[in-house]
Design a protein that fits this description.
Layout (H helix, E strand, L loop, with lengths): L2 H7 L18 H22 L3 H25 L7 H34 L25 H24 L3 H27 L10 H32 L9 H26 L3 H5 L3
């Protein structure tokens, strides 16, 4: 980096000799990893033994980590000299790489689904290979799944509205768009909970189809909950006047994440709910 570029990258008056920011020691990565371990372990215990305390404790710990870690990052971002141009660029790259890792996370679920859907003879113990397996009655894709699709597509427009309002320095429009997006996220989660309660098959003892279905759609639902919390934090930050048309990466990161959640759901709806149920629906006509 040339001396002129170096000088431009270091925020004026910050007292820093270089444009990079080394974070202070923090307990939240370790505690967050513990919370994630408890959540995964809690899902396993709940699925096999019907016990939920470990899962509930893991979720509460994860929410606490999210609150305190976000608080520290927000405080850090508003400290003069901390988040200069180079740091903000690094945050953008970091969010892009994080979403890329999330894409590959869901690729694993789709891979498992198509492995059994296209090659049902791979299902252990299948006497008559077919997909969905014999005895499985799938969801009607144009009932609650279609409603949830419309909800998420609408939420994608409201979060885009909020972003454009921010760029136009329209604080009221931003708060309205963000608030509607959070409400739509809560509506999606409510509809998915209703769908699960009315599911014609259960996670345990139902074979490979329920396992793949609940893991893929359940983890997506978990991501929707995370995204809803992310956007809710942004709403409170916007209410406090912490975003400007020039500096609002916290909101941009939340919007990127939400659009990623929308796209994953479209693939889930088309592949698992619609295409995956086509053979069963065809037999009804």
């Amino acid at each position: 980096m040339s001396s002129d570029a170096h000088a431009a990258a270091v925020p004026a008056g910050s007292g820093l000799k270089q444009p990079y920011h080394l974070v202070d020691p923090s307990p939240w990565p370790l505690v967050g990893a513990l919370a994630a371990f408890m959540i995964v372990g809690g899902i396993i215990v709940a699925a096999h033994y019907g016990s939920y305390p470990l899962l509930v404790l893991g979720v509460l710990l994860a929410l606490a980590v999210m609150f305190f870690w976000w608080r520290d990052v927000v405080k850090e971002s508003r400290t003069p000299g901390m988040h200069g141009p180079v740091v903000r660029l690094g945050l953008r790259y970091g969010m892009m790489l994080f979403i890329t890792s999330e894409v590959m996370f869901f690729v694993g679920f789709f891979w498992a689904f198509f492995n059994f859907a296209l090659f049902p003879e791979n299902v252990a113990g299948a006497v008559h290979p077919m997909w969905p397996p014999a005895g499985i009655h799938t969801f009607d894709p144009f009932h609650l799944p279609f409603l949830n699709t419309m909800i998420l597509l609408l939420s994608g427009t409201t979060v885009t509205w909020a972003h454009h309002s921010l760029l136009e320095n329209d604080r009221k429009g931003m708060l309205t768009g963000l608030g509607l997006t959070v409400l739509l996220g809560l509506a999606f989660t409510t509809c998915q909970a209703i769908e699960y309660s009315d599911a014609p098959f259960k996670f345990s003892g139902g074979g490979v189809y329920p396992a793949v279905f609940f893991l893929a759609t359940g983890f997506h639902g978990f991501h929707v909950i995370i995204g809803t919390c992310f956007l809710a934090v942004c709403w409170f930050r916007a209410k406090a006047g912490q975003f400007s048309p020039e500096r609002h990466f916290g909101f941009e990161a939340a919007a990127w994440y939400w659009h990623f959640v929308d796209v994953v759901w479209l693939f889930l709806f088309i592949c698992i709910y619609w295409w995956g149920a086509s053979s069963v629906l065809a037999s009804h006509y």
